[in-house]
Amino acid sequence: MTWRSPLALLRDAVLSQKAREKELRSLVSNLPFEGLGKSKQPNRFFKPNAIKTNKYTPLFFIPMNLYEQFHRLANVYFVGLAILNFIPVVNAFQPEVALIPICVIMFLTALKDGWEDFRRYQSDKKLNNMPCLIYSRAAKHYIERRWKDVRVGDFVKVVCNETVPADLLLLHTSDPNNVCHIETSNLDGETNLKQRNALPGLCTSNDVFEPESFNCTVVCEKPNNNLNHFKCFVEKPDKEKTGAGIESLLLRGCTVRNTEHAIGFVVYAGHETKSMLNNNGPRYKRSKLERRLNVDVFFCVLLLFIMCLIGSLGHFYVWLLINCFNDIVKGHLDSPSLSSFYMFFTMIILLQILIPISLYVSVELVKIGQIFFILTDVDLYDEETDSRVQCRSLNITEDLGQIEYIFSDKTGTLTENKMVFRRCSIMGKDYPHKENVIAFLHHQETQVIPDEKLLQQISRSERSSSGISDPYMDFFLALAICNSVVVSMATTQRQRVIGLLKKSTTKSLSVLAKRTGSFWKVFDSPKQNGSSTSAHKRSDDANGVQPRALDPMTLSARPAAASGDVCYEAESPDEAALVYAAKTYGFTLLARTPNSVTVRVPSGEELVFEVLDTLAFDSNRKRMSVLVRHPITGEYVLYTKGADYAIMELLGTPGQQKKIAADTQYHLDCYAKDGLRTLCITKKIVSSREYQSWLADRKKALAAIDGREELMMASAVQLETELTMLGATGIEDRLQESVPDTITALREAGIKVWVLTGDKPETALNIGYACRLLEEGDLVINMTSTINLMDLLLKASVVFQVTCVSILDCTLEEVRRYHEDPRNVDTTQKISLMIDGDTLAIALSPDLQDRFLELAKRCRSVLCCRVTPLQKSRVVKLVRDKLKVMTLAVGDGANDVNMIQVADVGIGISGQEGMQAVMASDFAITRFKHLKKLLLVHGHWCHTRLANMIIYFFYKNAAYVNLLFWYQFYCGFSGTAMIDYWLMIFFNLFFTSTPPIMFGIMDKDVSAEMLMGVPELYRTGQGSGEYNFRTFWISMLDAFYQSLVCFFVPYLAYQGSDVDIFTFGTPLNTSSLFIILLHLGIEIKSWTVVHWIIMLGSVALYFIVTLAYSAICVTCNPPSNPYWILQNQMADPMFYLICIISTVVALLPRYTFYVLKNSIAPSPLIQAKHLDRMEPSVRDMWMKEWRSLRGGTEVKESRLSTPPSPTLETSVDFYPGFGDAASFVGEELSLNVITD
Q: pLDDT class for 1211, splitting at 50, 70, 90?
């Protein structure tokens, strides 16, 4: 290694920092500089690929770990007191003894930190030494190196089923179309294949890529953690620029699938890769209970200060008397003021355990135990997916028991997200597909039973001479082409579970197939007869698909592919459903490459469409388009699918189109009312001149770095105009099992449920009734706008805002009038609110937030439709911050990540849309119904157990430390202890440490069956819950009372005797043990064998250790030593009498209070516990009676009078529709008050 001066190293460090901070990076190949020194490498300023996630080294572990632990103020406090005890003028007992508790705690913490860091070190070492292939100019081929050897500017070759070592710009693949398929499960949990395209025009041959011939400059953006966006362009020597995006980037951690090999250029390495920038470590949230705990620790500090101040002032008074009446000590003692100052610190050392040093460690242990019971609950296990609940945040389990608002996504959260094609409308005519309901009932997502009339229409279009340009043919071509579905073969190296039908189908499906069989033969064109049949058969078999997709045998036996060779892998279940629907009618997607799509039409002919560009779906445009060149006509055809409100405004204006659009819109509304997910399908013929003009703008947008998203959006919008309506589709998504029961139970538990979805208002309303978010008889306030928000802002944003104010004020007035009505004093209004995204955007403005929240919190449920992911998170944050309530967000897709992270508790559902929501969540479940037990049972248990344990911990420490405080009044405030110092330490460290931990893990106030059967019991934890200001101070006052009893009973018993200090302290210490443990026994709600073992074991451990210590400790604590003290005490009847009287008198008030309270005015939990003791059949009967009585008294019919304002319109119809709603600004906003 060449020696370099410190100045050169400093200069390189500064230059490296500047290079990494630039917004754009210019990268070149390392090959021309191979073998040269590091200082001559062009990309030397960028991070190497080796990673290091461990924090410590063997040499610096102790100082660095101590530095980390001293970031906790509690550790600093106790270490400071231990050091203070070494000062002779203020020490309370032996300095070494004071170090034991904090040393034990810090040693255990260091062991845990060291073990975790060692595991991180092993993981880093394994990753850094994984093999990879890097091109070498000297060797003229790819050589095997380690991941840690990869540098920015290298050429890396990744073979099939290998993991990508760094972020690579894809330059070449073994695929003839330069396509690479990757699996990103290591990054986002998604197992479906994603397609990546090599950068075009960089190699002269499709078969061979020569890295040494790569003389381009790669310009890319600064590293960031966005996994879905990448800005880059490659500049050739002739200054020609080729743009690249995320579709050409292989991310570190991805796995190459179904591709023999792929070659890429390293753009980011090591800690600058997107995967490492997303690796933020474990998520940390502070629970509500923890925040309250910190406040009470502060109160304990304040209490300690007062007690020490009293001791200091008492010492000052005593020393004043000494100085006044004892002249002999004059001149030989410190001044009273200085002595009192020293005594203040002595008292802090003596009474330090008032601040519970082990409380935080005990809380962590309790949470680990609670998580164990959650993970092992068989009711939260899903057999279908072989998965169980996941706890990803270990420190907020108790928050599950205090939830007041739940914000839920709809698709995939309340529903299965398993889509079945149910209906379609083509050219204004509806085709209901009534038979498809059977496939839906039998969970056959890929099964589509064709509509007979539509089959006949397609056959007529097929026979006609103009069948190629027929709208019916275009409709199904659009379904097959306009998507991102990947076609793969099951014979590839990776075996996947594919979404195909089982070979055995139900009898009902076979019967339906026979009924429609006579219509299936219409696609047997003359070409398929005779000699051409075998040719077609060979061709079809080569592609793994049946030659006649509409043959009845194909449906019943192999509906998707012959021999199951073709797999459709879709990123969205919607796309897969549409592709299977197109296939049912003979339009089979056979292959997809970056430049072409191959579709088999009903005649058996294979059409290869040249893909000119794909305008991907985004949350702003709400649509997707594919621009292709028709293989027969040569026309440029743009197929577009999207939401109706995003498509309708882009249609052309010919007279016939207006009628088709109106009829289609009517069908869409009907589909939505049936709860179907809807999409519009359109087509546009693009002229050659328009295409060339648009292509130039598109290339500029692709090559841009600054403002690239805006330019790409503008180019897409530029082309998506003057569309021709082809039709619409309706896809059904089944509600998950037990969703209505779960929502009903959550509502009975006092939790308000909001559903936030991007669906149409009609679809959302239908699902709302289906899942019992809305009920018959509810008064539904419907606030929706009927025009696009952007148009609204351009036309009349001020007027619209004024209208929203009027609506909110008018509605709030009616709700207030309801509350003021004497007839409604003891009723809960059944009011629900439905609002769409455009109106919500105005309602969330700063000057309208308070009105909106006041209305929303008076509603039993809120349904937000057509909302964006950003609006979801804004709503959750607004409710959480303004109403100061505990919120929970649950979702299953990437669009739910924002609200999951904003909520106090985030729950991800591992469904059909990948694992991004799960990876961002605090807890993960597989079904929405699991939320019921997770909250009502485990949430309640976790909260009550931990809350009661924390209160007991404060009580225990206060009760014990007060014994030392009372003694100061009888020892001249000298800071002396009447209990041996070692026994004082053992008391909290061993004798009384395990029972509260066991109490926090295993106590069970009510059984799970009772909590599930009577959801109302969950309300006890909401708000301040079990642990609040009142319960804390009641326990502290009880601790003061019990300590007084425990101290003065032995004091009065031995008054006037000549017993020594430890003879007096031993029965006092023993009595305190019995009082503290029996106090816990009163608090324990359910005794088990474990409880008895721990409690009796603690008592046995106390006597064994104390007897042994008294027997062997002859000169441990001179001048007074505990030698044989306990042995002598146990031989004296007075010892037993003191222990019994102290324990009974100390605990009698608390026990009496509980007996009277539970007998005269039992709480719902006590009543439930009484029901728990009954026979199961009798208990179930009482539970039903309880729920019916509670429900009958709390919820009554609303009697909202008809609003006097002309802006409100009341209808008695179930759902009158938006057309009948009163309008404020033309047709911009409508408000319906719907009653049933």
A: very low
Q: What are phi and psi of 567, to 5 degrees?
A: -115, 130
Give residue 54's pLDDT band: very low, low, confident or very high (50, 70, 90). confident
pLDDT digits (tens, 9 = 90+) for 26-46: 999 999 998 888 778 888 888
Annotated binding residue 1235 = no
| Backbone phi and psi for residue 135, each to the nearest 5 degrees, phi listed first | -75, 135
Find out whether 410 is annotated in a ligand binding site: yes
Is residue 118 marked as binding?
A: no
Give dist(CA 355, CA 684) in Å, integer.
Answer: 74
According to the annotation, is 1196 in a ligand binding site? Answer: no
Q: Which DSSP letter does residue 549 get? A: T
Report the b/e string of 88-121 with b at 16+ CB within 10 A: eebbbbebebbbbbbeebbeebbeebeeebeebb
Q: Please answer whether residues 1142 and 1071 qualify as being in contact, where contact means their C-beta atoms are separated by less than 8 angstroms.
A: yes
Q: Is 140 annotated as a binding residue?
A: no
Over residues 470-513, the pLDDT tens digits come to 889 999 999 999 988 878 654 343 433 333 333 333 333 343 33
**The residue type at 6:** P
Report the alpha-carbon distance of residue 946 to residue 381 in Å, rounded: 25
pLDDT at 816 over 90: no
What are the catalytic residues? 409
Q: Is 872 annotated as a binding-site member?
A: yes
Element (H, E) at 1158: helix 1133-1160
CA pair distance 113, 149, nearest whole angstrom: 29
Whether 881 has a binding-site annotation, put simply, is no
Residue 487: strand pairing partners: 568
Nearest-CA neighbor of 220 among 181, 194, 248? 248
Token duo for residue 198: 């090599």
> Exposed (0-12), middle (13-18) or buried (19+): which is 564, by Cβ within 10 Å?
middle
User: Is 892 among the annotated ligand-binding positions?
Assistant: yes
Buried b (16+ CB within 10 A) or exposed e, 594-603: beebbbbbbb
* Strands of 108-216, DSSP E: 131-136, 141-146, 155-159, 167-173, 179-183, 193-197
Give the separation between CA 729 and CA 379, rounded to whole angstroms: 38
Q: Length of the chain, please?
A: 1236
| Residue showing tokens 């018959």 | 776
Angle 503-504-509 (CA atoms, 0-180°, nearest 5)? Answer: 110
Binding residue per annotation — 521?
Answer: no
What lies within 8 Å, CB to CB, of 298 at 6+ separation is none
CB 494 within 8 A of CB 257: yes
CA dihedral 1069, 1070, 1072, 1076 (to 10 degrees): 140
In degrees rounded to 5, what are phi and psi of residue 195? -100, 135
Summarised one tens digit per residue, pLDDT across range 545-573 is: 333 333 332 322 333 333 345 678 777 77
Cis peptide before 1119 (omega within 30 of 0): yes
pLDDT at 1209: 32
Judged by DSSP in three states, 603 sits in coil
User: 1119 Cβ partners below 8 Å, 6+ apart?
Assistant: none
Strands 752-756 and 779-785: unpaired
The tokens of 107 are what?
A: 């040693």
pLDDT, tens digit, 9 for 90 and up, residues 1145-1169: 999 999 999 999 989 988 888 888 8
Residue 14 pairs in a beta bridge with none
Quick check: 540 and 562 in contact, CB under 8 A?
yes
Most confident of 535-539, 851-855, 856-860, 993-997: 993-997
Q: Establish whether 1088 is an annotated binding residue.
A: no
Identify the helix (H) or strand (E) that includes residue 908: strand 905-909
User: In the β-sheet with 261-268, what is the strand arrangement from edge to edge?
Assistant: 141-146, 131-136, 155-159, 261-268, 167-173, 249-250
